[in-house]
Specification:
Number of helices: 9
Radius of gyration: 16 Å
Strand content: under 5%
Largest sheet: none
Distance between the termini: 40 Å
Number of strands: 0
Shape: globular
Structural class: mainly alpha
Order of helices and strands: HHHHHHHHH
């Protein structure tokens, strides 16, 4: 189980670095545009920080904090982004995010570590509901920038 977690964390780190490089290095967007238009990255970074804390201190709270944003941006991203061309790359990232959530939840039930899960998810709701609200508002008011930067057509 630990090996699977390490493999998923490495994959998540690689896709996060890839998307961050793409936004900041290739597209040369502003930090706020990276933060909002690539919201999977801050979500994944939260999980990765939590994973390191888990390996060091055996505390899974911060990993659980990442469930809400990873589900919202990764899980639901599977249904929002197209499944063709260059969009396959973010879809692979979304799949890795969903698999990571699955691994985390399975581990929670195996370890019967419900207190950490409850605390982490409540903290995640408090923190990331604000972030998700901000991100969604920014997307609504800067939708044309998003389409221009990523050169994609979104449904609706």
């Amino acid at each position: 189980m630990k090996k699977t977690g390490i493999i998923l964390a490495i994959l998540l780190l690689l896709v996060t670095l890839n998307s961050t490089y793409y936004f900041l290095g290739v597209l040369r967007v502003k930090f706020i545009e990276w933060f909002v238009f690539n919201a999977c990255a801050p979500s994944s970074i939260t999980y990765l920080i939590g994973f390191v804390l888990y390996l060091r201190f055996r505390d899974r709270i911060v990993m659980h904090m990442a469930i809400l944003p990873m589900f919202f941006f990764g899980g639901l991203g599977l249904f929002v982004f197209p499944w063709d061309g260059i969009n396959i790359i973010p879809q692979i990232s979304h799949i890795i995010m969903v698999l990571t959530i699955g691994w985390l939840l399975i581990g929670t039930f195996r370890m019967k570590n419900f207190k950490s899960a409850a605390i982490g998810m409540l903290m995640g709701i408090v923190i990331f509901s604000v972030f998700i609200g901000f991100q969604q508002n920014y997307m609504a008011t800067h939708h044309e920038d998003f389409k221009r930067i990523l050169k994609i057509e979104l449904p609706g």
